[in-house]
Amino acid sequence: MELSFGRRIPGLAVNGRRLDAAVFNENEVRAAAGLTMVTGAVAFSYAYFDKQYVPLQVVASLFFVEFLIRVTVGIHYSPFGRVARAMTFGRPPQWVSAKPKRFAWSLGLGMALAMTVITNSGIRGYLPRTICLICLTLMWLESALGFCLGCKIHGLLVGRGWVGDDPEIEVCADESCAPPAHRQLALTRRQIIRKG
Questions:
Q1: What is the bridge-based pairing of β-strands 95-97 and 23-25?
Q2: Contact at 8 Å (CB) between 37 and 80?
Q3: In DSSP terms, which residues pair with 7 in a beta bridge?
Q4: Of the candidates 157, 125, 113, the residue with the CA atom closest to the CA atom of residue 51
Q5: Which helix (H) or strand (E) holds 110?
Q6: Global pTM?
Q7: Which of 28, 97, 101, 191 is deepest in the core (most CB within 10 A)?
């Protein structure tokens, strides 16, 4: 496997639409989100109940490395990504465009960096625990519900015209990060299916 962000699969089509841009398997992404959520929840529990912040320091640093790898070369090279791939082996892939995930992981990288600095600087109490709870909530939304807040934010930025349409963004798990014309087409398809 060559070193690149996302996978380019010749001849890949989703819902009859040919995909040329890099993609990720949504099943692997959600499994990795679940793994990071569980790891973060254990560290949060030690900080909240026992006032032991060393696990939170270690996990924050680990998450910083994890998200740095995801943003630069993709989830298939990250530690949690490798475990997630093994967990989802044998399941049919659900391909989604790589770029919205990169945007979401960039937000995760920023939060992980903040947590790493905060916890390793000796800051304790509500600030690190609140940031940790926000991260846990976002990871739960991704893993359990398939709701990617970063993808939604990216879609909002595109919809408002603050970020231009990108031909590399071809398909999203719930059409949330597609350009407005694609979202409207998807909504029309859903309405037709419901009526028919």
A1: antiparallel
A2: no
A3: 23
A4: 125
A5: helix 98-120
A6: 0.83
A7: 101
- Give residues with Cβ within 8 angstroms of 20, minimum separation 6: 8, 170
Q: Which of 2, 5, 170, 3 is nearest to 75 (CA)?
A: 5
Q: Is 3 exposed, middle or buried (0-12, 13-18, 19+ CB in 10 A)?
A: exposed
Could you list the mean pLDDT of each consecutive 10-residue stretch along the chain, which spans 196 residues? 71 80 92 97 93 93 96 93 96 89 93 95 90 94 92 82 72 62 53 58
Q: Tell me how crowded residue 189 is: count the other CB atoms within 10 A of its CB.
A: 12
* Burial of 174 per CB tally in 10 Å (0-12, 13-18, 19+): middle
End-to-end CA distance of the chain: 44
Residue in this structure with the two tokens 């694609």, named with its chain if needed: 182
pLDDT computed for residue 1 by the predictor = 44
Q: Which residue has the tokens 């231009």?
A: 164
